[in-house]
Each structure stands twice: as C-alpha cells, then as structure tokens.
Amino acid sequence: MIEKTPARLLVIKLGALGDFVLATGAFAAIRNAHPDDQITLLTTAPYAEIAEASGYFDEVWIDERPSRINLISIQKLRFRLRRGMFYRVYDLQTSGRSSWYFRLMKGFNRPQWSGIAFACSHPHRNPNRNRMHTIERQADQLSMAGIAETPLPDLSWLKSDISRFGLPDRFVLLIPGGAVHRPAKRWPAEAYRALAAQLIDQDVTPVIIGGADEADLAAEITARTGAISLAGQTSFADVASLSRTAAAAIGNDTGPMHIAAICGCPSVVLFSKDSDPSITAPRGDDVTVLQRDNLADLPVSEVAGALRLR
What we know:
Layout: E1 8-12, H1 17-22, H2 24-33, E2 38-43, H3 48-54, E3 59-62, H4 71-83, E4 88-91, H5 96-104, E5 112-115, E6 122-123, H6 134-144, E7 171-175, H7 189-201, E8 205-208, H8 215-222, E9 228-229, H9 236-245, E10 248-252, H10 255-262, E11 267-271, H11 277-280, E12 287-291, H12 300-306
Parallel strand pairs: 1-2, 1-4, 2-3, 4-5, 5-6, 7-8, 7-10, 8-9, 10-11, 11-12
Helix pairs in contact: 2-6, 7-8, 7-12, 9-10
C-alpha cells in the first residue's frame, strides 16, 4: 500500500498580538479541516513561540518583512515561498503586504489562495468585510474557502507557572500600555494611578503588566500606590495564566487585553476614537467596553463602576 504524501498548506498571520490571538479560532478551523496535511505558519518573530505552543502548525516560518527595494531579500523570500510547494494558502493577514506575496508566487504551481489578493482562487468577496469584527470576518473568509465551521478563539493551551511572581491571592491586572505610535489609545497614567489607589483601599492589589519599554509608565502608576509592576517580566503564556487567576483586568485597546478576555478574565477595555470596538474589541465571556473620543475625558469613577471582580 502506497502512503499518501500529506499536502502542504501555508497560513499567513504576521501580527499584531491582538489580531494573532483573535485568529486562533481560524487556526483551529484550518487544522480541523486539514487534519492530515502539513501546515506551515508564516508569522513574525514575536509570535513564533506562541504559534509553536498552539499545536496547530507543523512548522513556523519567520517573515523578516523585507522592504520592496531590498531585492536580495525579496528573491530569498520568493524562492522560499515557491520551494514550499504549497497547494493552498490561507491569508489571514489580508493586507497589502500579504497580497503582494501572492504576486511573488506567480508562475508554475501557484497555490490556491484564500484572501483578498487580486485574481486569487478563493477570494473573500464580502463587500462588508472591512466593517466586520475580526472573528466574524475570518470565519466568513474561511466559509468562502470551504471551511464551514470556525470556533471561537481559544487559548486553553497557553499557560505557564506564575508562582515565581509571588502575587497575593486577590489581584487585578492593569494594562496601561499600547502601541507607542498611537498614544491617543492610552488612558492617562494618572487615571490608572487613581484607580490603583482605589483598588488598594478595597484590599485588592493592582498588578501592572506590559512590555519592557513600558517600565517607566508602570513605575509612574505604582508610585505611592502599593501596586506591583511586572512590566517586562511576562511572556504571553504568563499573561494568559495571570488572566485566569486575576479578579479582573482593566486596560487599553492593546494585545494583552485580548488574551485576558479570551482566558475568561472579567475585562474592562478602554477605547478612544482612534479604534472601533465593533471591529477590534476583545471577545470573551465577560467584556465591558468603555469609549470616549478622548480617553482623558473618561472618569476614573466610570471605569471603577464598570469593574466586576470575581
């Protein structure tokens, strides 16, 4: 008996963190639809570890995102994509860059392509796609490519031992950071500090998480409040495990809030006019969205009032 060689598929999801974790339902759908195929993920370096831990992929490739004028790097990327001999590509990034990769694979044995690239074999033709939430948009895209069922995002496999942090039994996560180039998406540090002081008065410890580049912001919030800063100390898996233990999470429209919400942590997410919660809001069992055009106009009392501690 001759064994059938597994078919090769490519999934493209480059980032960012919130978009990546929202795509975990689509990852599962693709794996469920192709249980015996070899699936490669093309992503960027920050998400390689979480992708490998998910179990959805047989291989993870790192995209260095070469400039279009870097001809040598482009040729290397083109050669790698073509050498992959993929029979189908699921482009979950659906950006100008990922659609450009479709053009790089032009020629003999160009794969089937699910996405928005011009002249691709399985286009997502919904005219409302840019007004759909990421979860529904990707489910709709996959349905047009023949995958009928897309589960909700799931991070049950993402976990770590957080005992090393020595945290108190009752704590709330504060996530005050976000993209450096979009400061309007951040609630002011002094508002987080005032909220932290209220939580301390309720015998609940605020625990601040964020990247290493947000350590100064965390220090500004912890000053004279008794809050704990873990800025720069947590992996994505740590954030997931902290979220399963925390009494609640409060934060801006930023990636770690998506992890908290998906992991079932009661979450209050703060939006300015710079992003649309109907398209990008975290999804979970207990998510409250508060929005102001200017987040400086959002009072601490309203955020504290929306908080539901478990």
